[in-house]
Amino acid sequence: MATTATLTLASSDIAGDPVNVTKVATLTKADSTNDLDQSSGLNRVHLRSTTQKTLLSASATNRTPGDNKAGKVYLINKSDDASLYVTVSINAQTVGKLYGGDFLFIPWSQTDASANIKVAATNWTSSTGDIPIEYALFHEDQDFLTNA
Amino acid sequence: MATTIASINLTSTDLLSDSLSVSAIATLTGAGNSTGLTLTGGLGRKKLASGHAQYTLFDGDAYANGAHKIYLKNTSTTATEYFTIEINSEQMGKLYAGDWAFFPWEANADTNDIKIDPSADDMTLEYMIFIDE
């Protein structure tokens, strides 16, 4: 039940020599070589508010520090407008801004029960139009999400 | 202006009842513009020898608020070995053996350090930052 994630970073001119990094990860359960076996599927939503929204809810009951579970989050801003961004936060901590076309792929362990992944279309206005985002969660343990 | 491309492919033939194939390509640009990022810290490795102590990999104080991009990889091949990744004091998640992460980093506060905490001695993290001036 292998799911693989491949990242390539390439540039011919950001440094004196080319950058060409390719890494492949097989998504596995915590402390194990067994494959992750659950997924939220690929979701798509349109953001049309500057209000912060909870995209993925951490379990309030199942996660405790040291309770190792593996999860991976993929998130992409599908806007064609490079100036439109989505601010991504975990709990109250800003991770960064995904500008149009940008993506992230991060581990999400939810060892903090408040570690919801939140998004906000911070510079959205009624004239910018919606900001579409797509996301997927790969995980183990049926209780990994409160809404799973 | 430099041109740096980040691409991702997520694939599985058996996780779902249909094949999964998700691909995306991003050109790494500055905040709110289409100008390619021009600075990088280069590809580096950090070996944390002992003590399992938390280590500040990127200091928020050393970078301007911008559209930086971070790449991290746990080079371990032992499944039980992981790096805990934190921003400021909020835990993002655990990067298990062979896993990589790629994410934007705003460095919008001096305290927004990216910290790593190995679960065992002598673990090595590979990393790279693309910097928005």
What's this, in brief?
The complex is a heterodimer of chains A (about 150) and B (about 130). Helices cover about 0% and strands about 45% of the residues of chain A.
How many H/I helices of chain A?
0
Largest sheet entry of chain B: 5 strands, antiparallel
Major sheet of chain A: 5 strands, antiparallel
Tally of DSSP β-strands of chain B: 11
Most extensive interface between two protein chains, with residue counts: A-B, 67 and 65 residues
CATH architecture level-2 label of chain B: Sandwich
| Fraction of helical residues of chain A | under 10%
Q: Give me the CATH architecture of the domain at 40-139 in chain A, please.
A: Sandwich
Specify the overall morphology of chain B: globular
Secondary-structure element pattern of chain B, one letter each: EEEEEEEEEEE
